[in-house]
## 1
Amino acid sequence: MQVLGVIPARGGSKSVPRKNLQLVLGRPLIAYVIDAAKNATRLDRFVVSTEDEEIAEVARELGAEVPFRRPDELATDDVSIVPVVRHAMKMMDKSGFRADAVLSLQATSPFLEGEDIDRAIEKLASTGADCVVSVERLEHGHPYWVKRLEGDRVHPFNDASDDSYLQRQDLPPAFILDGGMFVRRRELLESWSGMDFGLGEDVRAVELGGLKSLHIDDALELDMVRFFMKEKAGGP
């Protein structure tokens, strides 16, 4: 199974300007996920998909391929990951590399490691699933605790809201997609209708959690990453 890795990294970011190039311990943020892709043994090729010349230049210096430029219409705030990944797959087809599966990696998940990537690809290959996603176990905000308000009156949010599970230790495990990794089969991407998130019917999970599921959306999370990176490096 030939696997293509795609790191989407557009230039625009409203929450943190030039987020993918922000320095973390003296390195651009995108460097960390590029390291993870380079250390993975199950990726045959990996590319950075960007419309931004500076990001493209930095990515190349870090050892990533940037063999095409992402169209501007695929680099707006309202474009989901699936058309970006489909575009990358088709561009690589034209270059002679035909992927059987495509793994997307968020540049804003800097604690991902090569072994996490390999584990996701191995699960796709061994199970025959349509897609493998990375997930994080919910420690707070469990769906059984969710309520809705009518004025100030508290009501169950839906059938899952259950007052019999008020103690955390009694809750059944619940998970959310952390957004760090998605591995999709080629057939799934080719048949995508544009009406969903392109996960297919048979979706499997690899559990990450902790720092590996940390995704940078704002300046506070970027500061957290800098702090934890410094701790990890044993810095003062």
## 2
Amino acid sequence: MQDPLPFLRRLFDRAVEVADPMQSLAGYLPPRPEGRLVVVGAGKASARMAEAVEAVYGPCEGLVITRYGYARPCKGIEIVEAAHPVPDQAGLDATARMLDLVGGLGEEDMVLALISGGASALLVQPAGEITLAEKQAVNSALLASGAPIGQMNVVRKHLSRVKGGQLAAVAYPARMLALLISDVPGDDPAMIGSGPTVGDGSTSEDVRSIIDRFGIDVPPSVWDVLEGETGVVPPGDVRLGRVENVIYAAPSQSLEAAAEIAAAEGCEVRILGDALEGEARDVAAEQARLALDTQAAMGAGDAPVLLLSGGELTVTRRGDGVGGPNAEFCLALALALEGAPGIHAIACDTDGVDGAAEVAGALIGPDTLARAEAKGENAMAALAINDAHGFFERTTGQVVTGPTLTNVNDFRAILITPG
């Protein structure tokens, strides 16, 4: 086997590659309809998805919203860049135009909706009298709360005019095909991008409970919205009757592609799951124990063991450092392993952005803590203030990819050789 860290990086690159819309979307497109076709979408992969659509159909009418720096050249579909993970005016204006675009369609028309992770922030149309500034504050509070992504999305749906099936409702009676890239644990279409094309059975009371449970500070305008009927579309609503939602790329496919490479290199591969959730530092401690127990049971001539997992971990802000769940996982893992020989790991977000930093994640090995100490870095202190990205930047452990143009969530791999 090659050196462990380049090997782990190769596995991550393969996981990203198989989720690239240019590699995987074409097979899910029906023949181009004869009537009017409108392409809309949002997410960090949506511009690449639009590019893949036009590679098959040719120039199309439409509007797609993606993250700054993630635009792709399209001949007909307009690509708008906006802010993520906290929404901005560009996203607000583009979402209003998107709703206008699909709002006047008829039964003979078709909407192709391209949805990927990131759509929750990029599709912005606050409900009631909630202002953009208030929406931004609520979004920031959600991200810092430690709430699981599914519960964050429940809140987002009820404070929106476009999420929770509302985009599909506006497009009715047109036929809609929604192609989705999953970045959520369990691959629930209703949770991908807060489900703009999928009905949702949650209630305003559910939102109040989440706000209370995680101590999320919200303005009075939010309570006003929750006092009445929000626009979230319930499952079974007639306006969803002409919608087909298809997940065509998911975390499991990326993990399996990485597993194939590792098995060909002689590794025993153990996939721990593609839908792991929880605090990054807690999951790191659990996986460190598993790695050490695995190594303790190995004989000198045994094949390396690779532990693979996906999902979406969270970070509860405790300090003012720069960090994301993947980097925090790696930092906590390095501390828990205490320099154990023969164990290396990578954790990265497949969209190339871990948290709010333009960094995918990090790599660690048995010498990570020693190298940090030699540079005067205190790993425990960095973890205490959520400064994992800063720590790995200063100790040259970062993985920086730039925009990957896809998003099937977190990728974690721990390589274990006999100690």
## 3
Amino acid sequence: MNVTVENLAPCKKLVRVELDAQSVDAAFESMTKDFQKQANLPGFRPGKAPREMVLRKYEKDIQDEVKRKLIGDSYREAIKEKKLDVLGYPDIEEIQFGRGQALQFAATIETEPEFQLPEYKGLPVKRDSRSVTDEDVERALNLLREQQVKFEKADRELRAGDIAVVNYTGTCEGKPITETAPTAKGLTEQKGFWVEMQPQSFIPGFADQLTGAKAGDKRTVRVQFPADFVTRELVGKQGVYEVEIVEVKEKALPALDDAFAKSYGAENLEKLREGVRRDLENELKFKQSKDTRAQIIKALMERVNFDLPESAVAHETRNVVYDIVRENSKRGVSREIIEKEKEQIYSVAAQGAKERVKLSFLVQRIAEKEDIKVAQEEILRRVQTLAAMYQIAPDKFLKDLQKRNGLIEIYDSLAHEKVMEFLENNAKFETVPPASAPAVGDNPS
């Protein structure tokens, strides 16, 4: 057998295979005998029909089987001989085939990228020295108190943090707002409407103009509808509101005591504090690990460049596009808007796909070099965890995965986690002062 390999493009090759006529004829002879043994022709016992009659009836079937077997066997042998790491399935082009002829065919294949694995141990990572403080714990406890806040009537002027219960009517350019924005009935008139006394509440600047008012007071409030206002017809226009203060309500937070702790399932306040601190420490550890891995990936990706297989990038791009569209649909973005932005979505997806494909090849190569493997028991444990998460019987979930080759995805995911853990354990850490970021336990909007 003669095999030659041509480079068509990065990660794409043309493998030409030629098998001599003698081997082809031997394959025809062997296949013909197999058909003779199984042939069931009228007037002859099974396997006793003359060769000529078998050939007349089954010649086309014999040719198809010989071609399928020879091309399949020769292709696998050629790939093995040339030590090619093939991705996906080959595109086979038959050039010559028949009795008394050499078999010639060409296979267009995609191969794994060729690159020198960079140094991956001792990757630089900066980890800030932040830790959970008593102030963080108190801040988190106050957030829990906010979840149980009550609003009580206050016989005084409105101030920051209060709730103003108001009646109002609004106009724009001297006309009811609904004449400018027909769907904005709620912006035109409301009774018993609650406005939190914060600068951005309701319409930016509205609440500020109520400061100092008491129940029974009336005020004229002028606002400018901002550029990002939800009702597009009003953007940039001025609204004028006639407002009557119906009631002033102030926040009443629960006392920070054992009764409060028990409402969250803790034995007492001290136990609640311990639990909150533990949660904050776990949250900090998770954030630091996530940041560490992001730095490791960035450092690893910057150390090497190589060409990527087109089909792998295209496949991953489709996956990323699907994820982006699904997330936008969940957020309520309309199909029309998604369609309008499809070129930008594809551009973002393509870039993300290239990075993910590149990382997957790097991780795979590191796993091979470090002999990092995933045991069958680990896969089964992950299957059981996922089955419980989706509330599906483990046996059924496993069968569904096997049908769609989902176990490969689970293996790859676990292997990726193991490699990242290996890289994290072998990283070179530098402790730096905490960056200007929200304190532990904050929930920035």
## 4
Amino acid sequence: MTIATMLRTTPAKTAVVVSLALGMSLGLQSSAFAGAREQAYRIYSRLTGTPPTNPMLAQMTTCINDGNSPSATCTTGLSTAAVNTINNANSVGTKGQLAAAFLAMEDPNNPNFLNIKVKNMVIPWTNKDQTVFAPLNDTATTLIGMIRDGTDFRKALYDNIIYTGNGVSPAYSNSNNNHYVQMEHQNLNLRTVLQAQSQTAVTGHPLASVAGVLTTRASARAFFYAGTNRAMFRFTMLNYLCNDLEQIKDVTRAPDHVHQDVSRSPGGDSSIYLNNCVGCHAGMDGMMGAFAYYNWGTVVFDDTLDPDTQSMIYATSANPDFVLSGKTFSGTRVMPKFLQNFNSFPYGHVTTDDSWINYWRVGPNAKLGWGWGDDTGNSPAHTVSSNSGSSLGSAAQLGYELANTHAFARCQVLKTYRHVCFNDPSEATLENIAGDFKASNFNMLTVFSESAASCSGN
């Protein structure tokens, strides 16, 4: 029954329907057309978790009322980088709304944007349980620092970078997390205390081993400990490309890089391998070779040692001889975990170095939007350089490959929008913000400000 039909019934029903229709109309209007003051309040509270002060609310309201021409009154106190980012945005939200968002993010009297909002978003990326209740650590602070500084966020997966606390005691240690625990216990302002440093200088690891946050202590502890290092690949895909293996398995890829430890007849049924297992392993095992020289703790896994007091190791030369299943391995830099259970399928791929190949560049997973290299899926030459101008190692090359996908850009937008707005963006909004993210040289502050502006009306 239409509203027009219902209006032709009884007076009582007419009154009810008119009230209902009017209420629905007003509700939609208040949601979609919130006033400047309401928008300012929502932007601030969603980016910091706290309400704004009256002066801050007034300044943000001025910005929103300014539309696409923010006045000097609006931008007072904003950094030059913030003003440049606002002026270069063109897709989502007015420049006044974006200025209001930057006022909230750069509020000198409220550290909550970085200390709470951003920290709570990235902490789950640093542990297998994906819990927000893990302690602050070097992976999280590096991500937070890069967001604060507007650094090209792709570099999180490959550059020689780490953030530590300036003047914080105890100093950074490869064998414990006390430096960051103390920073959190003192509730230090991450906007002022974090400083960017080269990972090689802080950790002492060689440049060839460095791959952004993938080789920071917290990530290595979580994803290089025990296992076969497949966890590092899986959680990198999940945390930074928003795709778990089940979503991207492809049984049509060549299986020639599937390792020896994978049974080709699990439970005595080869169809399980052909229809399921190979879908993940054909692509994953081809790329995880980049992590062949890494382990957490000792060369040969020892579960009697406390993992939290150990550190990441990277083989720069051949490991000492080791024995697996009665076979002695010598003269190899490859960690034993890559060669274990070789009797499961002796004809499988044997890892001899840290080379890798991406079979997912073609086929169904081309939809991830791989950004460079040829169309064959071949591993690119190791010639891409970090900020220091030095050639990147194999793990960093893989990080570069993953960071230059369209899926990486979409993932940062999707996670940020959900964290700020508490719902999913429309496909159009997602693509528009992702486009601005790329255009801003992958500045995450663009994503935060445009997400907050996009949902400020509801």
